[in-house]
Fold CID domain-containing protein.
Amino acid sequence: MVVGTSVLSWRLLCVGMYYSGVLSCNHEEQHLLLTVMAKNAEEAALEYRQALDDLKDNNKMQINLMTILADDYNSFSKEIVAVIAQQIMKVIPPQKLAVMYVMDSILKNVTGAGNYKEHIEKIVYKGDERTRLALHKLRQTWTGIFQRSTLYKIDLAVNAIDPAWPIVTPQPVNTPVPGSRPQPVVMASHQPRAAAKVHVNPHFLQKNSVSSTSTTTTTITTTTTTTTATTTSATVDNKLPLA
């Protein structure tokens, strides 16, 4: 290490060597290279601003390195996002888009103590029309990164500036209340009942019919016999001699 060189200058020198290809390293070595943390938020913001100034186009290697820096400085996420917001405002349109890609890479790859999403949602709508067109493509990839309500707020904010920006209204999700049970369907008690049907054995009806006929015939026969007996008795009586 060069004597008298500050930590910040030495780190920027390493970054420059990485950009120029003089220094080559894998992903793990990149983290080792960038582990020297700034002493405070002011130094972190200064270093990140200087690195952003070197970003002129959509250079994947530079954007990856900016993402690693943001991960290293996640304790200063608020300050880093403020630097990104200022950079979006001051650079020319083509560079605005490159900074937007840095922001998108941070959203999708950086996790940790710093809540970048909380700060970035306040600045995503800044930029000219061309930048917003590219930003809309990025916004379509943020489902699952931001909450639906946050994406809805972003759409409303951008639409207020650019009416051509579509607003995606979040659809409510019907979730059952824990512990609740579905209510049973109660049938009305006054509904008319179907007429009751009585099933009778046809053989039973035939048997009763025959029995009834036999009884009637017997009765008639008995009556006839009684009548005949009465007539005979009267005839016999008529033949008796008079006293």
Summary: Confidence is low (pLDDT under 50) at residues 1-10, 214-243. The chain has ten helices and no strands. Residues 202-239 form the longest helix (38 residues).
